[in-house]
Amino acid sequence: MSVPTRAKPKTSTHPADARDTKMAISLRIRPDLKAGIEELADRRGMPYQTLINLWLSERYAQEVHHMRPAELADLMRRTRELLAQLEQRIYPAAPPAGKSEHKRERTR
Question: What is the pTM of this model?
Fold first, then answer.
């Protein structure tokens, strides 16, 4: 009796299939949307699932790498605060007039 072997995952050279492992999901979409995606994928010469995966990957990258204006403004505010703190450490405030940090030696 032979022992069943696990099927190896399919490998592809297409950029959308750059990840080593993928996971199957179930997605409910309108039939007309699926037909349109299949038609676009045929024009590009790729399977429709690959096109969907490519679109999802592109959109994910946009969401992760592009901040919304409010997030960017908050980041800029925090950056200015940190720069001000660094400037204070590098260039401490001058001592009050009349008081010097260095004491002069008196000559007798």
Answer: 0.44
